[in-house]
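assembly run, all chains below
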Amino acid sequence: MVTVLLLPLLLLAAEGMATNTISLNGQWIVSSGDISVPGTVPGSMYTALIASGRIGDPYFRMNDKEYGWIGDRDWAYTRTFQVTADTLAYPRVVLVCEGFDTVATVTVNNQTVGTSMNMFVRYVYDIKQALVVGQNSITVQFQSATGYVKQVASSLPYDILPTCVPPQYHGACGANLIRKTQCSFSWDWGPSFPTQGIWRDIYIQAYNTAVIRDVTSETSKNADGTWHLKVDIFMETIAQLPVHGQLEVKLYPTSVTSSKQVNLVKQNDSVSFNINIPKSAAIDEWWPNGYGNQSLYDLYVFYTDSLGTMNNKKIRIGFRTVELVQDYVSVNKSLGRTFYFRINGRPIFLKGSNWIPADSFLERVTRDRVYNYLKSAADVHMNTLRVWGGGIYEMDIFYEIADELGIMLWQDFMFACAMYPTHPAFIDSVKQEVTYQVRRMKHHPSIIVLSGNNENEKALVQDWYGTGVNFTLYKADYLKLYIDTVRSIVMAEDTSRPFLASSPSNGVETQAEGWVANAPYDTHYGDIHEYKYLTPFYDPSVLRIPRMCSEYGLQSYPSLEGLEPVYNDTDVDYWSDLNDYRNHHPFGNVEMMAEAIQYVNLPNCPDRKQRFSDLIYVTQIDHAVGMRTWSEHYRRWQNRLDSDGQGNTMGALYWMLADIWQAPTWASIEYGGKWKMLHYYAANFFAPTIISPTMDGDFLDVYIVMDELPVKETRQDDTYQLIFKPKTNPRPFSIFDLNTWGNPPASHTRATGPPSEFDGTLYIEMYSWNSFTALKSWSVPFTMNTTAQSVFRADIDTMVQSAQCTRRSTCFLVLHFGDRVAGPSTWYTLSTFSGAQGLEKAKLQISNLRASTVQNQFTFTLTSDKIAPFVWLEAIGVKGRFSDNGFLMYQPNMTLTYLAWEAVDVNKLTAALTVKSLMDVYY
Ligand code: BMA
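ok done. output:
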């Protein structure tokens, strides 16, 4: 009835019009006191100041400290814009901002239209009354984040701990009191730049009756194998209700479509579609990297109101199922539960790392940069990244690229390493945040799990911050925030993926114990984080055996090339004040040296800068070898239990993927994208099939680990061939087929059905450090009937003797399947490098550099006159990556490639290439 009365009025206003959007991105004026500079939106005041030449590079030396005043000031963003009479004639005109950073008051033509207090909320303000035809002005007046948290702190009845970060962070206090990127106040790997600004899109939207605000989707499998698609459409309407219209859903490139008439009765209303997709649509499943295709479908939603005005939204979705399996590992329930993910019914070992924001200034994080990082992850066989809770809910491009590359995401909510307030305004803001973010992220097939926070459960239970004296109080806050608030909303909005209260957690056991476990990080349940800086990093026997390890790491320095733009000449010394300042991890630089001396002799070049460069190299060796040791340890334990019920480890996510700035940290990729040695090692230790030698006392124990046992596929010629999944999605390093490594046993060339076992031959060669000719080779036939098992075990001294090697320290092992180039291969030393005898300085030479058929990819020959450990190639000034790096060269010649990420010619690249190996750092 109401509609009938209103319709003529609306028609008058709206005839012939479509929904109208005016972007306010672009040039604004950014000002504070006597400073006024142009600034780009999306952006922050720091990049506005850099662009106008008011400040230098914030990452240079100690500029984070130097520029502390910037974050402490209040900044305002202002601009003007035009509004036509047509726009103003719409019944509703709103200002939509997808991200204010953070505390702000918004005025349009001097009228306050709204306020913001949460960087992770999309704000929508009604601004129709404030607008005029012609020129309008908008001001977003920010309050300094550091000033705001002081104000909050003084109003709280008790301290929300910790009240400040450790002094080594050179950071700001009180990040936990504001809903903002927690690490923007500093972290143990990053500087303090408490930004202010409009960090995401801002626009005016004028509409007649209703607009689509969000579209979410959920896919599930029906019993008959067909797919069910649930689509939720969140509409925002004008105040005069109800509103009638038609919603239509189309799934491209299928012909699936569904539509219905809708009657919207609330200002924020939603409509659901439940669509059973017919078999004829031939849906192709979405698979993680390494397991199959990443098929994606475009889901369009069209809304047409009763006036004929249209509005639409598109999301890209994928069809996959996800289960987090937490069954008892044994009839003896005290041995705990499994903790692994099953995607489309297949158990998948999570291989990957952790993701932090790629820059302190988020506006600098372009699609190209994100793609480069995620592609670098995919290229080294990672299938998972954890979006860590101290950063941001990532930008849409991040999730889109993860969907495209098959990188599964473990998504934390943005709470990390602290207690948090629970006063009503805070909780209310978190509710808006969680609702908005879950709806924004829900359709991405890459996101496989949501988690309430980073490490806060453990911090509470173990009293990291002095909460122990008031445990009950802080526990109540914990439950109120993560269980009553975050979890409740997730349960209402998204049950299509598992939710964990904290990362890490004991999973369902944590829940059974009332969400705050007595002993978090129990290896019998859930996941753990594991850091050990003082034990030998190359010895897996010091490591725990968890169900999953979602953080483990060591530090290393980035390259001198990476540091030079932000260092000056006095800083290029390992023990310089700047290095001390730059490493926020307490005692980090000392720890790295303490690690190094256990494994290699320390570089001793008299030249300070060269010595620093050599020490950087040594820290990267430790880092790479350490993470190889840890990652292979977790992979080896994937399908065994020890007598205490530990094992069935089904995930290894090392800390961390990429740096936020140039500093010594845990990252395997430097700021700017250059791969550290660890990242090259990840290509080997995360490969679908690895040979993983280890020592068990005096015994050499060689494991083979496979992501999955090979399957047989029928070929056109009606023979069968053993191949490794995925055939459909080959990537560098994974193209690996039994035929290229030797003659498969006859029984495997013709068979029916997938095999449950796999035969092969492992070759183990013993070399002495001073010769390219192997002393002895063992060939070991093996049968794999699980995905990780020991295939060879022998007393190492007996092997040493039978190879006529003088002693362990003079020899090393090379292990392969017959083809060192195409198949998996690895090396293993029988002593540390500081104890190794017989190593001599190698003369390494690069020759015959030539362009390959792949654009920007070059091939070259590397020769050596001696065995060379940790061969380290660099292309100074040319971004890109080598096909392998940091390897042990045990053959006199190798062919390698360099894939440049930018245009470069043979001459420039030839001049840019450098190479060194371990013995070069000793003078
Ligand atoms: C864990 C992480 C981060 C931290 C890292 C290294 O605690 O969750 O907070 O940067 O360790 O210390």
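The pocket of beta-D-mannopyranose is lined by residues 187-189, 390, 416-417, 454-455, 529, 551, 655, 666 (CB under 6 Å).

The radius of gyration is 29 Å.

not gonna interpret more than that til we talk
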